[in-house]
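Hi R.,

Here's the chain you asked about this morning:
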Amino acid sequence: MTGEELRFPEKVFDVRKRLISVDAPDGSGKSSFVEALADKLRAVTGEKVRIIQPGKINDSDVDLLASLEQEQELTRRRNSVWMATMARNYSSVIRPVLDNGEWVIEDSSEVRALAMSLLVDGGVPGKATESAFRWLKSGRLTAGLLPNTRINLVTSPQECVERVTQREGRPSNLGQMEKLFSAYRDAWEIIRTFQTTTEERFIDVRLEKQIKENLYDYLGGVIKTRVLGLILR
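And the predicted structure, written out as C-alpha cells:
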C-alpha cells in the first residue's frame, strides 16, 4: 500500500436514510425547493427536519466564479475554507443531528465542493480537484456519511442567468454559468463512483421555467408527486 493510500484509504460510506442533499448551480431555485421540501417532510412525518448548509460561506457560486477570473489563488483559498467548514459541520453538526433521529436536508453538498474545485483547476481535474477527491473518498470530508437521497435540480444555464440577473439586479454572465454547469455535471459523475453500504438514490427534478401558480404550491406539488415517495420508501 502506498503512502497516499495509507493517508487517504478509500472509505465504504455509511448511507443515512434521513440525510438528503439538494444540489444545483446558482439561480436554479434550489433554496426555495429545499424550504418547500423541509415543510412537506415535516407535515408528512411529524418529525424534526433541519436544513443545513454544510459548507456555509457568504460567497455564491457566481461570486466565486467571477473572482476566479480575477484572482485564482484567492478563489482557491475560499474553496479550501468552504471544504474545511463542510468537514467540521459533518462531524460536529450533521452526524449528531442524524444520530438523534432527526432529518437533515443539505442545501448544497460535496457535489458543490467538487464542482468548485474543478472550476479552480480550469475545468480539468488538477491539484484542487485531486485534493477534494482524496478528502472525500477517504470519508474525512463528510465524516464517513453520504445522503441516501440526492436530488439534482435540472435547469439550463440560460434559465439560471435570468434568475440570477433578476435576483441581483445586475446582468449575469452566460459564459461563466456554462462553465459552472459543466463543472457540476463532472462532479455528479465523480460522486456516483463511491462505495457505499447501501445504494444511494439519485433523483433528477425538472422545474418549469415559467411558473404561473404560487411558487410554494407549485414546489409542494412537485415534491409530493416526484420526490416524497422515494425518500420515504
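The longest strand covers residues 14-23.

Let me know if you need anything else.
M.
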